[in-house]
Structure formats: structure tokens, C-alpha cells
């Protein structure tokens, strides 16, 4: 009668990109929901999280780490200063540089918020074993580095 259909897994670049984007879009609402519970906007959460894990940083260093333009990072830092979550201080080694650091209020907020966000993300990826996660991370880093190096 009919022939048995063999399905070949599509491994083309465009299919890799589509699957990656679909996975990212599926994970995004989980991240957004956990960040929203902190009552912070996405960019403010990213700035505070960077300061929590990296310590005090110059404004111009924070922007690229959290994917904000120089204008956007300045506005975000101003907003966080007004909320009492960060402060600006002179750099101990270079008086021309102003560093941004968490206040006690900011540290408490982001420490709690990040812990909840971390738990939400853990729930989202629990379908993967530790080895699968390590493989995924290795491959994503390899792909990202290659893409960054070949972008012109």
C-alpha cells in the first residue's frame, strides 16, 4: 500500500532559530510574571540584579550588562535613586567616576525578588536534567559567541 514516511529532523539554521525563539517566547511570560511580583519594571529589576551580583558599578558599565543604552541607563538609575533603592558615590580610585550601589532598602528588595525569580525560573526548566542543562548552556554560549563574532 503506502510507503512508511520517515521523518528527518530539520537541523537547518532557520529551524534552529525558530525553535530557539519559540522556547524563548514560551519562557518569557514566566520570567515577566515573577519580575512583576517585585513591583519593579524589567529594566529596574535587571539593574538591581546586576548590582546584587556584581557589587557597585559605574553607570557606563551597568548599561551594557543589562542591555540598556547610555540614555536609558541614566534614566533607570535616576528612577532608582528617587525610589531610594540605589545611591551614587564617588569611585574610591577615580574621582571622575560615579558608582551606583544598592541601598539597604534596594538590597532587601532585590534579594527577596531575585530569590523568588530564581525559584520561578527553576520551575520553568525543571523538565531538563542537570546534564541536559549543562549541555544546553554550553551550546547556547557557543552559538552566541559565534554569532557575536560573525556579526558585521
Name the features.
152 residues; mainly alpha; 3 strands; 8% strand; three-stranded antiparallel beta sheet
Task: Give a quick precis of the structure.
By secondary structure, the protein is mainly α. Helices cover 66% and strands 8% of the residues. It has one domain (28-142): Arc Repressor Mutant, subunit A (Orthogonal Bundle), CATH 1.10.10.
Please tell me about this protein's structure:
The chain has one domain: Arc Repressor Mutant, subunit A (Orthogonal Bundle), CATH 1.10.10.10. It is 66% helix and 8% strand. It contains 6 helices and 3 strands; from the N terminus they run ααβααββαα. The chain has a 3-stranded antiparallel sheet with strand order 1-3-2. α2 packs across α5 and α3 (59-65) crosses α4. The longest helix is centred in the N-terminal third of the chain and has 24 residues, at 13-36. The protein starts with 12 loop residues before the first helix and ends with a helix. The mean pLDDT is 92.
Average pLDDT level = 92
Q: What's the total count of β strands?
A: 3
Any idea how many domains? 1
What is the highest CATH level, the class? Mainly Alpha
Largest sheet: 3 strands, antiparallel
CATH topology annotation: Arc Repressor Mutant, subunit A
Low-pLDDT ranges = none
| H-E order | HHEHHEEHH
CATH superfamily: Winged helix-like DNA-binding domain superfamily/Winged helix DNA-binding domain
Main-sheet strand order equals: 1-3-2
Summing up helix and strand content along with how strands pair, one would put the structural category as mainly alpha
CATH architecture: Orthogonal Bundle
Distance between the termini: 53 Å
Taken as a percent bin, the fraction of beta residues is 5-15%
Coarse morphology: elongated
Task: Give the number of helices.
Answer: 6
Helix content: 55-70%
Q: Rg, please? A: 20 Å
Amino acid at each position: 500500500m503506502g510507503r512508511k514516511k520517515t521523518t528527518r529532523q530539520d537541523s537547518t539554521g532557520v529551524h534552529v532559530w525558530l525553535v530557539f525563539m519559540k522556547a524563548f517566547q514560551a519562557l518569557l511570560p514566566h520570567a515577566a510574571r515573577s519580575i512583576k511580583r517585585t513591583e519593579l519594571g524589567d529594566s529596574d529589576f535587571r539593574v538591581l540584579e546586576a548590582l546584587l551580583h556584581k557589587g557597585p558599578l559605574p553607570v557606563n558599565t551597568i548599561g551594557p550588562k543589562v542591555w540598556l543604552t547610555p540614555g536609558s541607563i541614566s534614566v533607570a538609575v535616576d528612577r532608582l535613586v528617587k525610589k531610594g533603592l540605589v545611591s551614587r558615590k564617588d569611585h574610591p580610585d577615580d574621582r571622575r567616576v560615579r558608582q551606583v550601589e544598592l541601598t539597604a532598602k534596594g538590597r532587601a528588595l532585590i534579594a527577596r525578588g531575585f530569590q523568588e525569580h530564581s525559584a520561578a525560573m527553576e520551575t520553568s526548566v525543571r523538565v531538563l536534567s542537570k546534564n541536559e542543562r549543562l549541555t544546553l548552556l554550553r551550546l547556547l554560549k557557543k552559538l552566541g559567541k559565534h554569532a557575536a563574532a560573525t556579526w558585521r
